[in-house]
Amino acid sequence: MTVAKADTAPDLRRLGLVIGAASLAAGVDLTVKAVVSTQLASGTVIDWGVLSIQLVYNPGVAFSLGSTLPSWVISVLTGAIIVALGGYLITRSQTLTALSSLGAALLLGGALGNFIDRLDGGGVVDYLHTGWFATFNLADVFVTVGVAMLTLGTLVGQRNPTRTLSGQNAGSRPSRR
After folding, report:
1. Do the beta carbons of residue 127 and residue 39 sit within 8 Å?
2. Is 120 an active-site residue?
3. Cα 67 to chain center, whole Å?
4. 11, 29, 117, 126: the active-site residue
5. Which of 101, 86, 107 is nearest to 14 (CA)?
6. 32-78 pLDDT, tens per residue?
7. How large is the angle between the packed helices 138-156 and 98-118, nearest 10 degrees?
8. Taking every pair of C-alpha atoms in the chain, what is the biggest distance, in angstroms?
């Protein structure tokens, strides 16, 4: 009996899709931030009832935690987290489900959007304000939804990298009928 050994090489196609989708998410986030920064620089607030759009700069991370730290410290720490996330995605790419992959792309895209926004030292542009919760941005939405999807996709099931397209285990003989 031959034991099938899973290929441990990264799934480059899946990684490419995740990185492409993450880049798209970061690009959309940074574009919206640029528009908001330009259009609402004078202090204008757009009130949509339950949600308003107003420009706020957050020098910290979530809920302004760490806002008293030097900006370079926050940048280094968030950069390290993004590198760790990237390493995780590379090592787990063989077993990520479609849901996990989409979650990973949103998480990575949101994290990159906020990281790039933070690099100028002025803090992250936040603009979605509810009045009862912290002011946040599209990248924060991507991160939150991405974590939920990545977690759910991991809990629900993983891809089996030893399966071939025909559904047989790698290394096994086709059944004879």
Report:
1. no
2. no
3. 22
4. 126
5. 101
6. 999 999 999 999 999 998 999 999 998 877 777 777 788 888 889 98
7. 150
8. 75
Active-site option among 11, 29, 117, 140: 140
If DSSP codes are grouped into helix, strand and coil, which group holds residue 60? Answer: coil
Residue 168 has pLDDT above 60, yes or no: no
In contact, 173 and 4? CB cutoff 8 Å: no
Instruction: Please report, for residues 19, 31, 81, the alpha-carbon distance to residue 60 in angstroms, rounded to integers and kept in the order given.
Output: 26, 21, 15
Pick from 12, 2, 6, 3: which is nearest to 163 by CA? Answer: 6
Q: How far is CA 7 from the centre of its chain?
A: 26
Tell me the backbone φ, ψ of residue 156, rounded to 5 degrees: -70, -40
- Catalytic annotation on 126? yes
Res. 159 pLDDT band, cuts 50 70 90: low
Hey, what are 52's tokens? 């308003």
Q: Which helix (H) or strand (E) holds 25?
A: helix 12-39
Q: Which amino acid is at 99?
A: L
Q: Is residue 55 within a helix (H) or strand (E), and if so which, with residue range?
A: strand 52-58
121, pLDDT greater than 70:
yes
